[in-house]
Design goal:
Layout: H1 2-67, H2 71-96
Length: 97
């Protein structure tokens, strides 16, 4: 009976070690997945910001094109709008600080 109990205890011990190993492996995978999620979320945020900037630039170009058909006038209008956008961006940065 003592031998049988010892064998059962050894089997339970081996199974506990296996379960512990699987847990640690899964925990490591979870941590890696969470790190990847954080990195991808940051990338998505950056891309969304870039998309908004590009949409705004596209809108400005459409506006400029509709205002002036002459290439020289288009360049002047682009320069004015670019200067205004930079000023607005500086104001926004100042407000955020």
């Amino acid at each position: 009976m003592a031998v049988d109990l010892k064998q059962q205890l050894d089997r339970v011990s081996v199974k506990a070690q296996i379960i512990t190993g699987r847990y640690l492996s899964l925990r490591k995978q979870l941590d890696e997945a969470n790190t990847e999620i954080s990195r991808l979320s940051a990338t998505i945020g950056q891309m969304q910001t870039e998309i908004e900037k590009l949409k705004l630039a596209n809108e400005y170009l459409r506006l400029v094109k509709s205002i002036a058909d002459d290439p020289a006038e288009v360049r002047k209008a682009k320069a004015i709008i670019t200067r205004l956008v930079r000023e607005i961006d500086r104001c926004i940065l100042d407000l955020n600080d």
